[in-house]
Amino acid sequence: xxxxTTGRTRKTTDKRTGRDxxxxxxxxxxxxxxxxxxxxxxxxxxxxxxxxGGDLAYNTVHTILKRLWDKGLVVRDAQGRRGAYRPAGxxxxxxAGLMRDLMxxxxxxxxxxxxxxxxxxxxxxxxxxxxxxxxx
Amino acid sequence: MSISxxxxxxxxxxxxxxxxxxxxxxxxxxxxxxxxxxAAACAAAALWGLVLMTATLLGEAAGPVTxxxxxxxxxxxxxxxxxxxxxxxxxxxxxxxRAVAVVRRHRAVRARTARLCADHPHDGELVVVxxxxxxxxAVPGRPGRIVVTTTMLVALDAEERRVLLAHExxxxxxxxxxxxAVxxxxAAVDPLLIPTxxxxxxxxxxxxxxxxxxxxxxxPAAARSLARAALATASAARxxxxxxxxxxxxxxxxxxxxxxxxxxxxxxxxxxxxxxVCLVVAASITDATADFITLAHRVLPH
Lengths: 136, 302
Description:
The structure holds 2 protein chains of 2 kinds.
Chain A: H1 2-14, H2 25-37, H3 45-52, H4 58-70, E1 74-76, E2 85-87, H5 92-103, H6 107-110, E3 114-115, H7 122-134
Chain B: H1 7-25, H2 28-61, H3 63-72, H4 82-118, E1 126-129, E2 136-139, E3 145-149, H5 150-155, H6 158-173, H7 176-189, H8 194-216, H9 219-236, H10 248-256, H11 264-299
Parallel strand pairs in B: 1-3
Antiparallel strand pairs in B: 2-3
Helix pairs in contact in B: 1-2, 1-8, 1-11, 2-4, 2-7, 2-8, 2-11, 4-7, 6-8, 6-9, 7-8, 8-9, 9-10
C-alpha cells in the first residue's frame, strides 16, 4: 500500500510540468498530517480543506483522511465535534528523547543531515524579520 | 612524476577559489553536479598520487637493485626525494583516518535517525516529532522519510509547510545524500576541498529550494517559508547559534531574485572549466602512474 503510494509520488513529481500538476497522494497525506499536527484542536475535513487550500476537492480530503485513519495515523475525535480528526500521537515522549539525543551529536556530525534550516546570527535574523514584515 | 602528482592539489585550490563564482552564476543543479564531479576527480587523483609517492618508499628499500638500474639507464626520471615520500605516506595515513572518521560519523547520525523513524509505528512519508526545537530534515532510505518537529509545523502556515515538505522531498528524490557523502569523503582525503564541500552543501539546499518553489508554484512562498522556518529555529534554540550553518539569507535572497539566468556561454564556460579540471587531473594521474611504472621496472628485477 505505502510502496504503491510512494511510487506514485515519485512518478508524478518527476515530471516538471510546473504548478498545475496534481499533487501526488503521498504528498497530500503528508500535507494533511502536517496541518493536523500544526494545530491544537481536531479538524473536520472541511476545515482541513480550507486550511490547505487551493484546488483540493472535499472528497479528496475525505478519502485521504480515511486512508490515514486506516493506517492508524489519525484518530477521530471522541469527545469533541463529530467528524473531526486529530493526529494519533503515539510514542511521543520517546521520539522527543531520541530527537534530543540526535541533536546532541554536535554540529560537525549533524552536517550529515540535510536540514531545512540550521541557525541564524543576529544580523541575518534582523534581515529576515524585515523581509517578512514587508509582505504580510 | 614530479609535477603531475601535485596537480590534483593545485586543481583543488582552483575549485575552492572558483566555487563561489560557480554557485553565484549557475543554476544550482548544474553547479552542484559540476563541482561535485570535479571535486571527486581531484580527491581520487590526490589519493592515488599519495599512494604512488608512498609506494616509491618500497622502491628505496630495494636500494642495490636501484643502483644497478640507474647505472643501466641514466635517462630515467629521478625518484622523488625521500622526505617527500615520507610526507606523502603521512598524508595518506591521515587521509585514511579522516575517511574512516567520516564514515563513523555518518553511521552514528544515521543510526539515530533510523531509530527516530523506526519508532514511527506506521508507514507514511512524514514523521512528526514532539519537540521544543524547530527542526526539519530528510532521512534517506527505503522509504525515505521527512522528519519535522511540531514546533516547526506550528511556526509555518499551510503553504509554507508545503514548501518545506517539497524541499525535503526533493532532497530524497534527487539523492542529495550521495552528493553529500562523496563530498565529505573527498574533503576528508583532500582538505583543500573543504570549501568546495561547503559550497556544494549550499548548492544542494538551493537546488531543493528551487524544486520546492517549482512544486508549490511560487518562489515568494518558498522564500517566505525559508525565512519563517529560520526564524523559528533561531527563537527556539538560541544556544545552537554558534554552529556552522548554511547561509539561509543567501538562499532567501536567491529565491527573491529572478532564477539565475546566467548566459549560456558563461554556464558552458564553467562546465568546461570543471571538465578541464577533471581532464587535467586524469592526465596527471595517468602520467604519474606511467612514471611510477617506469620507476618500478627500473627498481624491481624481473
